[in-house]
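Changelog-linked ticket: iron/sulfur cluster example.
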Amino acid sequence: MEHFLKHRIMMYFLKKMPIIKYYNRAYFAKLKKFLQFFLMKLLHPDMPKITGIELSNFCCLECPNCPTPVTKFHKGFASDENIKLALKYGTIMEPFSFHRHGEPFMHKDFLKYLEIATNMGYRTVVSTNGILLDDEKIKKLAQIRPYDMEISLHTKESVAAFKKMTQYLLDNDIELPSFYGNVLSHNEEDVYKWLDELEVSKEIRKYLRRIYSHSWAGNVESRKTDYDSDIVKRRVKNCYFIKSNYVSVRWDGSIVACCMDSENETVIGSLNDVFNTKQNKNGYALCMHCDASWVNKYEAHEVKGIGQNEL
Ligand code: SF4
Ligand code: SF4
């Protein structure tokens, strides 16, 4: 009896943990996806890892640290067909996101596909500037409960949306496995000012974290740097896209080497030919300018004294 009670109490607390709660639903959809993926991997062991699709490269902001407002790559929205293909070939139990260069809420069916992907067992990621987050969307997001949600604090409106969303989660006792308001290093002074002006409480500020702003592999012209070839070689070796065969899917179904590639310079395949898509282990011309934190092993953080999750 004592053992039974201990077991029940332990299960009660385990079920309350956000990650357990996250997977504790839609068992049939998850089983189906798992079996499909297992079979696909068996037949095509070298297939690339697809961890999302860009729903659109349109955005409602024009941030100076981003290539999206000035990109020469054509603009558009992912079709239902491409989204379904990305969900079909996606890697199970890995993150699945809907952003690359653009704001996912610009796509009218974002929340519909977010819910489908979440129920399939992907670790779904929402990364937004918060501008289009209204009460209805906040409620729906809280109901879907994605694995990871990040609101990048580019403007005062983004901070207001972060405040509102966090308060809603707290009021309704909803804990996502991962939830953050991202303070980007290039405009952090502004963010602190907006946080004070909007009287954001200490309780809400616990969900803030600092992120080092990179140059999108030189696609932000004002911050472009030509790195020394030894540094580039080391960074290509560290790059998890190349090392682990992750790839990035654009809204039009083209597959590029990584999420830095706003201009589609590194096209290596398409959603219609996933099994023949391969990373170039030697890297790409784009890598000459890459300063993303995952390729420099957080060197930039150390140099500037900026760490993550410090706030
Ligand atoms: S940084 Fe994000 S919010 Fe700003 S322009 Fe780029 S995609 Fe839009
Ligand atoms: S540009 Fe950077 S992130 Fe992209 S493939 Fe090269 S090293 Fe990796």
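Closing comment: Example verified and attached. Strands lie at 49-50, 95-97, 123-128, 148-152, 178-184, 208-211, 246-249, 254-256, 267-270. The chain has twelve helices and nine strands.
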